Amino acid sequence: NVAINDNNIIDEGEWELPRRCFACRFKTLRCEYGFSQADVGAALGRRYGSDFSETTISRFEGLVLSHSNMCKLRPSVEQWITDIQSAIESGVSLDQLRRACKNVPPLRKRRKRTSLDAPQCLALDSYFDVNQRPDNAQMADVTKTLDLEFEVVRVWFCNRRQKTRR
DNA sequence: ATGCATGAGAA
DNA sequence: TCTCATGCATA
């Protein structure tokens, strides 16, 4: 119960340390209590509004999210910790707490994941080093050179930029 | 844990 | 059309 509820100030300038501290403490507690990332994600939905996948909780712990996204999620995560701790204090068993009733969300139709081979990745990365936002003509060029679909190349650059911004 | 993908909303 | 939050699929 240590410093989990301290008031780390998350504002411009030095949010890197605070959010790292919180995320690390959260992960430690989650593991100590024996919850999986998916458990927490589902719990957030059942109790505080919107639920999340294992992916998002993983990224929260790993700080692989934007600053604003971290700030937005943090309150729910804090609340989850508080609730778990008070439940434990009032004698509820961990096993009982872990019981999840995840409601299966509707499947979005997804296009199959393209897996880029090593040469293609290298080529894309080196291109990115030179130009982070190629225009249509330039992307069409890359598309031909690497024998990929235009959409795959377009999305690749979007994701690559997003990664850079985190 | 992370790569490729979706979709709503900003520009 | 791009960004942003988010996740299924995969390594």
UniProtKB/TrEMBL annotation:
Residues 107-166 form the Homeobox domain. GO terms for molecular function: DNA-binding transcription factor activity, RNA polymerase II-specific; RNA polymerase II cis-regulatory region sequence-specific DNA binding. One of its GO terms (cellular component) is nucleus. Keywords: DNA-binding, Homeobox, Nucleus. Residues 11-85 form the POU-specific domain. Its main location: nucleus. This is POU domain protein. The chain holds residues 55 to 220 of 220 of the full protein. It is found in: Nucleus. It comes from the Eukaryota.
